[in-house]
Amino acid sequence: DQAKAETGSRFSFTEVEAGVDADHHVAEGYDADVLLRWGDPLFVDAPEFDPNAQTAEKQRRQFGYNNDYVGYIPLPDAEDPSSHGLLVVNHEYTNEHLMFPGIVTIVDGKPQVAEATQDRIDIEMAAHGGTIVEIRKVEGKWQVVKDSPYNRRITADTEMEITGPAAGHHRLRTVADETGTKVLGTINNCAGGVTPWGTYMMAEENFHGYFLGELPEGHTEAENYKRYGVPDGTYDWGKFYDRFDVSKEPNEPNRFGWMVEVDPFDPNSVPRKRTALGRFKHEGAESIVAKDGRVVFYLGDDERFDYVYKFVTAGAFAEGDREANMNLLDEGTLYVARFDEDGSVTWMKLVHGEGPLTAENGFESQADILIETRRAADLLGATKMDRPEDIEPNGTNGRVYVMLTNNTRRKEDQVDAANPRAENAFGHIIEIAEAEGDFAAESGTWEVLLQCGDPSVAEVGATFSTSTTENGWFGMPDNCAVDSDGRLWVSTDGNSPKATGRTDGLWAVDTEGEARATSKLFYRVPVGAEMCGPLVLDDMETMFVAVQHPADGGDDWPEFGRPSYYEDLSTRWPDFRDDMPTRPSVVVITRQGGGKIAV
Ligand code: FEO
Ligand code: CA
Ligand code: CA
Ligand code: CA
């Protein structure tokens, strides 16, 4: 009844106890089954995973590492769209110390990783990218369909096409590709999205880490690369592949940091880097069809003091006409957000020739604005945010939820209404209401839904509702999902024994009525892991979550003994076998005996 709906939580389940241990935990009455683990064969002829005999060739036929975004696209001929479809999964990055046996030694009490070899780098590159795999529910349990013609691995070597306004631009041309339209691979694919026309969006996030070397003296890209932190040298790929060494191939970094669109129904389709959506550390691209049929994509740039964006297609979505929608992402308007003190938000256009986005400021064309999206947004005076992560539109209430994970570098004199805490260790969530409920609007209003952290510590300034239990609060919101009842689910990155006395997990967060800002713990990950996904299928009977890098965390987990390296891991989830490393995995959650989740 109405009164109850306005006062009570919309989620019904018995909360999990927050804590830290070697296993994962889901609310009572639910099953959490591992569906896909790093190394699982994706094809009938793919080899079984053997951690001591891994090769790049095998890895290209197996599930990749560090599953992050999880999307689902029903098969057109499925009897029940929520029981048979394609699972699309990003493989964000690799943790070599957890992947390769024997490469860590302790020198003077400190762990040291062995120098990279080409074989190891090739495996890392093959473990990046994405997976498309057919799955189906049989008698209540989900299975992987290994003989599906749709199954596919995308890696850091897959050939891709660059499309849209920056395609072919001279700043995108390299020795290997003088057209500026062909690029190999996608990297650091964090969150993502599935478009209304059933394609898979992969966000290229921290691409700077894959480049090393020094730009030639006085190079014209120096200022551009500085704004993006390129090169960073986290990975050693550039020691074996010239394109990841900016001293040898100075334009290659301009070919990363884009949104990639993949047609999952053609396993030979060439993925497309859609330059119209800008170049930055893309977190995700969740979308919704606006009232007039244009499609709106919400985009976060995950860096301290970077921005919230949205892209509105020029053309309208044509329901049922897949071909007509296939190039919608090459034309449209990119906007960046300014959050004002009076509670209004203005979406400012990034269009060549408008305002300061002119040749005098070094933007010769729209291509320059897209290649240096951050500098263009700086000039427009966009609001510098506390690390924008996943952003999710909610079609049932017309609102948009923005995860801001943390920013410990914000100083007292840098706080503003939309980023109200200095040294923001635990992050917050902003709720936007677009003008007149129109997602394509150029303005709207906003408020802080929730400041995260431990509500029992006054200085933290957390704003969970008083009905939130000691298990229910969390820090560092990262990925999120809105289910078909319009309820918000938030997964986290950064909770640990030291930071919050708990692992990461998945929390159900009320947004409506008296229960607004009430949070409850539904699932938590093993020690050292991070929580990704999440996704609730339309019938609300299946949820997918992704567990990244269990056992990671090194010295951060003293209560679990030695640092978590392969020879002495703090957990061997999910196999719990001495001869198996810990493995990132996609987990499927269903209600025992069937039925809708948390209803
Ligand atoms: Fe890969 Fe922004 O988290
Ligand atoms: Ca993320
Ligand atoms: Ca999401
Ligand atoms: Ca993350």
Task: Describe it.
With 599 residues, the protein is mainly β. The chain has one domain. The protein is built from 8 helices and 33 strands. The strands form 7 sheets. The protein has a 9-stranded antiparallel sheet with strand order 16-17-19-20-21-26-25-24-23, with no helix packed on it. A 6-stranded mixed sheet has the order 11-10-15-14-13-12, with no helix packed on it. The two termini are 14 Å apart. The N terminus is likely disordered. The chain binds MU-OXO-diiron and calcium ion (CA) (3 copies). MU-OXO-diiron binds next to loops. This is Putative phosphatase. InterPro entries: PhoX (IPR008557), TAT_signal (IPR006311). It comes from Lutibaculum baratangense AMV1.
Q: Poorly predicted ranges (pLDDT <50, ≥5 residues)?
A: 1-6, 555-567
Portion in strands: 25-35%
- DSSP E strands, number: 33
On the 0-100 scale, what is the average pLDDT?
A: 95
Across the major sheet, the strand order is 16-17-19-20-21-26-25-24-23
Bound ligand species: MU-OXO-diiron, calcium ion
Number of helices: 8
Class from helix and strand fractions: mainly beta
Shape: globular
Number of domains: 1
| Termini gap | 14 Å
Q: Which percent range fits the helix content?
A: under 10%
Main sheet makeup = 9 strands, antiparallel
Gyration radius from CA atoms, angstroms: 23 Å
Protein name: Putative phosphatase
InterPro entries: PhoX (IPR008557), TAT_signal (IPR006311)
Pfam families: PhoX
